[in-house]
Write a structure and sequence with these properties.
alpha+beta, 4 domains, Beta-Lactamase, 18 helices, five-stranded antiparallel β-sheet, single chain, phosphorelay sensor kinase activity, Heat Shock Protein 90, 43% helix
Length: 660
């Protein structure tokens, strides 16, 4: 028996290494996500990696083994695949991108790299094809492209909209530098102000601003330069025709420019002014109606006062009149004159035309003041009872309108009682609202003024009409119907309410409910001076009225003054020019022929600034106007005045000069 032994160790080792390499290659191919395929030179599939089969959704590669690879592509993809195979046959690399379906029909986008596999002879013997799934990247690119196109379209549309707004807007649009140089304006400038864009560009817009508005405009520009937004700002711009228009601006800054939008509100401003004038006229009409209610009673009261003065004057003429009777008649005349002065002062103050001016005042004092005219207003057949609290009741409202409202309510009550009955007026400080009061009154403290009459009352169906303007149940010529509408308007304007309780045949109760003013200043009482003798002082009295001068000079002499009486401002200046140190005070009327007392005072202040001046006038409106001006340096005394009033004001004027 023969045994032949061959040495195969190296072969075995080589086979093992080959098997290991193939196993390693299989693991590498299975882990790659690309689809790796091997084609023969006729482009038929001979191999597909395990990872590639998963991507191509191939469950059995044998089912497609030997199939022409280009047939998996359609349209342009098929042409690109054939061209890539031809390039590989020629020993060249090729690549393309296209879409192809998987075996289950899913369309995917592929990037394909085709390369030749060379044999030992250096010629291509097979073709390597690597396909990478680019579907997600392609979808992302498509989405990004779509987004970019959308954004670009939006930018175009917004730019178009912005340009359209810039051209068509009726509002003024401005782009300017921080120094006021205009960089751009829209066509609305021409429509509103007449200026063309060519006239405005590179010019200074402050040159168009009204001189009175330049400072406020500069302040707004400073705020913009500091990064502030200006939400509401008004100034006046010059029109091409030289007139001015009021413009309301909104402006914002960026790093280089001011961007502003302005609206022409001239018509609105004029309409508001017209409305204000109409409201003032309505308030005055309401006041004049109330004054008309007072006129008849005032004439009656004045006739009574004149009767007292005339009777006392006749009695004083009697011979051998006893001293106590003479004193009695003189005091009666004096007190009657005081009553007449108060009556005219109240009527003139009530009738004074003035702008609405809210202020803090004591309702009790106002009611008491109107109460002094109550008999004049209601007549003798109406019994009036006024109930005032011991403590003051302050409100913040227009005092003149409050007086008008009170008079209108009194007149309404008087007419409801047909001139006879009882009227109760009560002032209270109360917390409102209570359960039976309307929700229009917020929580808080209120001052209530209630007027209760014994008149005919008001039917329920008419309660909702009584506050309407021009509604009245009176006959033609008996009233305009504005009275209660003024009361209602005043209450609402002051943050309050007017409440009505009424029943036919049992009278009515009107309650004016106004918010209480917590924070107020206690006004000091006027100082009263008793007649004080001022011996050795000389008064230069300027009075053109002979009767007034005849009685005023002895009154001054009784106070201890030496008096030089002249009848014009020119004479007064002549006397002062000689030796002004001879006089200690000038006492002058305001209304005189030629130079007025006000002009005289100004001239004295310029020439003799140390000289005290006291002016007097009988015009209530003039007195009120001058009294409001705190800039003047003279003292003011209203006619008619008593000896005590004259002594007090002269004492104050001379004493103040002595202190200086």
């Amino acid at each position: 028996m023969f045994c032949r032994v061959n040495e195969t160790t190296s072969q075995v080792i080589a086979q093992v290494r080959q098997n290991e390499n193939e196993a390693f290659t299989d693991r590498v191919l299975s882990s790659i996500n690309d689809c790796i395929k091997v084609l023969d030179l006729d482009s038929r599939l001979t191999f597909m990696s395990e990872g590639g089969q998963q991507i191509m959704e191939v469950s059995d590669f044998n089912a497609i083994r030997g199939c022409p690879w280009p047939d998996f592509w359609q349209d342009q993809g098929n042409l690109d695949a054939i061209a890539a195979v031809e390039a590989a046959r020629a020993g060249q690399n090729a690549s393309f991108m296209g879409s192809a379906k998987t075996l289950t029909g899913t369309v995917k986008w592929w990037h394909v790299q085709v390369s030749p596999i060379f044999g030992k002879d250096g010629k291509p013997e097979k073709i390597l094809c690597v396909s990478r799934d680019m579907t997600q990247l392609r979808d992302a690119e498509q989405a990004l492209m779509s987004l970019n196109e959308t954004l670009e379209q939006r930018v175009i549309e917004r730019t178009r909209d912005r340009d359209r707004i810039w051209r068509l807007s009726t509002d003024l649009m401005l782009v300017a530098q921080f120094d006021g140089i205009i960089s751009a304006v829209n066509p609305a400038w021409t429509q509103a102000l007449g200026w063309s864009a060519e006239q405005l560009l590179d010019s200074q817009f402050l040159g168009l601003v009204h001189p009175e508005d330049v400072d406020s405009t500069l302040a707004a520009m400073s705020g913009l330069e500091n990064g502030q937004t200006i939400p509401h700002f008004k100034n006046r711009y010059r029109h091409l025709d030289g007139s001015y228009r009021t413009i309301s601006w909104t402006a914002v800054p960026d790093k280089q420019f001011i961007h502003a939008v302005g609206r022409d509100i001239q018509a609105e401003e004029e309409a508001n002014e017209a409305l204000r004038l109409s409201q003032d006229a309505l308030h005055q009409a309401q006041k004049l109606e109330a004054i008309g209610q007072l006129t008849g009673g005032v004439a009656h009261d004045f006739n009574n006062l004149l009767t007292v003065i005339r009777s006392c004057s006749d009695l004083l003429k009697a011979p051998n009149l006893e001293e106590h009777r003479r004193v009695k008649y003189v005091e009666a005349i004096s007190s009657t004159v005081d009553r007449a002065a108060r009556l005219t002062g109240q009527l003139l103050a009530f009738a004074r035309r003035q702008a609405l001016q809210p202020e803090v005042f004591d309702v009790c004092k106002s009611v008491a003041r109107i109460g002094e005219m109550m008999d004049t207003l209601t007549g003798a057949r109406i019994q009036v009872n006024i109930d005032l609290p011991a403590e003051p009741c302050f409100i913040f409202a227009d005092g003149s309108q409050f007086d008008t409202a009170l008079v209108n309510m009194v007149v309404n009550a008087r007419d409801a009682m047909s001139g006879a009955g009882r009227l109760s007026i009560k002032v209270e400080c109360a917390a409102c609202p209570t359960a039976d009061q309307p929700a229009s009154l917020s929580d808080g403290d209120y001052v209530t003024v209630s007027l209760t009459d014994t008149g005919a009352g008001i039917a329920k169906e008419k309660l909702g009409l009584i506050f309407e303007p021009f509604y009245t149940t009176k006959s033609v010529g008996q009233g305009t119907g504005l009275g209660l509408s003024q009361v209602f308007g005043f209450a609402k304007q002051s943050g309050g309410e007017v409440l009505v309780e009424s029943e036919l045949g049992r009278g009515s109760c009107f309650t004016l409910c106004l918010p209480s003013a917590k924070n107020h200043e206690v006004v000091a009482q006027d100082k009263h001076y008793a007649p004080i003798a001022l011996p050795g002082l000389c008064v230069l009295m300027v009075e053109d009225n002979q009767d007034i001068g005849t009685f005023t000079r002895p009154m001054l002499e009784q106070l201890g003054f030496q008096v030089l009486w002249v009848k014009s401002a020119a004479e007064a200046l002549h006397e002062l020019s000689g030796n002004p140190e001879n006089f200690h005070v000038v006492f002058s009327d305001i209304a005189m022929p030629g130079m007025s007392g006000l002009e005289l005072s100004a001239e004295i202040e310029a020439r003799y600034p140390w000289m005290p001046v006291v002016l007097t006038t009988g015009y209530s409106t003039e007195f009120a106007t001058i009294a409001k001006d705190e800039a003047h340096r003279f003292d003011l005394l209203q006619k008619p005045y008593s000896r005590e009033d004259l002594a007090a004001i002269l004492h104050r004027a001379v004493s103040r000069t002595g202190e200086q």
